Zinc finger, C2CH-type (Cinara cedri), 211 residues
Amino acid sequence: MVMACSAFKCANKYHEDIPIQFHRFPLENPELLNKWMSEMKINDFKPTVYSFLCSEHFIIDDYEIQPGTEVKFLKNDAFPTVFKYFPSYLQENLTFKQPVLPRPTISEFSVQEIPASTSRSTDPLVDNEVVPVVSSPELLDGSEYTLKQCDSKSSKRVLRSKIKKLQKRLKKRDLKIKSLKTLLYNMKKKKVPSSDETANQLEEQHVGTIL
């Protein structure tokens, strides 16, 4: 039997090369099962012993590592909270527990270490360890970013104006060339007296210069 995830539009299936765990529904714990079903929001779905949810729908705090092993075990009271394929109208109404994000690499950020306090914290969510403070290397000030945008828009307007002027000049040049060529053709065709000499002068003075 192939283990497949039962979550909405989740296509994960078990494969030995993919590091995804699959968890059976807590059928023997009706209260916890109701939480699972409530979070999944799938109508008319009745899980069986062959139904599974993959680990992508749980956060790291839902797991614990047994002493002496490296295998993650789902906590007895854990329930799924991450369903990224839900429709937008459902996503807006959900309040997920915040998943743990991947840590940035040293090459992407500068890391400063803040020594831990010597006194032991009483807050169970706070660990007395060295805490990395991540700062982005190149963040633009808001005013500087606005100025850069303004300069860019101004430059674009100037360039557009220059392009329009050049296009008008080219159009006038093309019309002038066309009219002069027509004039030269008519003069030669009608054999106007001294037309060859006049045509040559016009061609040298105007057409040659424009081209």
